[in-house]
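Methods — Computational structure assignment.
A single polypeptide chain was analysed. Its primary sequence is given first, followed by the predicted tertiary structure written as structure tokens.
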Amino acid sequence: MDAGEEIRLTKDGDTDLWTAVDVERGVVSQGETREAALENLDEAVEGHDGAGRPPTDEELRELGIDPEENTPGGELPDVLT
């Protein structure tokens, strides 16, 4: 996270979970402690900003996905529209 970014931390009184929000990006994460919520937020922001890599064909096969049939596009499920 860059200096000057606004991060909001709140604790839910019912669940005792901490919520961390990166206000600029709109990324939210939770944790059982403040530290855990912030660590989880760092990971979520990395994913949001494009960290990581596409899975290899071998990793897809291990998950039961045929790489040849794994193509982008198609219709989204109703829950995502």
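Note: The first strand starts at residue 7 and ends at 11.
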